[in-house]
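One chain given next:
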Amino acid sequence: MARIVIPTDTIPYDQLKEEIDYWFNSEDRRNLAFLEAICQAFQNRMREYYKAGDTLTDRSQRLEEIRQALVEIGFKRGEHTFTIAAGKCVGGGSPTGGVCP
C-alpha cells in the first residue's frame, strides 16, 4: 500500500504540550474522574448489597430494589430529562439514549 503524506499545520512543541497539559489538568477532566469514581464506589456497594442476600429469592428482591432506585433518578435541564428509566416522557414519546425530548 502506498504511503500518502498529508500536509498538516505545525504546532510548536511548547504550545502542544501546554494544550495537552491544560486538557489533562482541566476542571472537566477532574470532574469526570470524580463522577466515575463515585459511580464505581456505588456500583461496588450495590454488588455487596445484592450478594448479601441469603437466597435467590432474597437476591432477586434486592435486584428489584436496586433497579427501582436507579430508574427513579433523573436530572432535568430545560425540557430534557436525563435518566436510565425506560418508558414514556412527560410530553409523550420514549427517551432516546436516556434523554427525554
Summary: The longest strand covers residues 74-77. The first helix runs from residue 13 to 24. The chain has one domain: 29-100. Residues 68 and 85 are 9 Å apart (CA to CA).
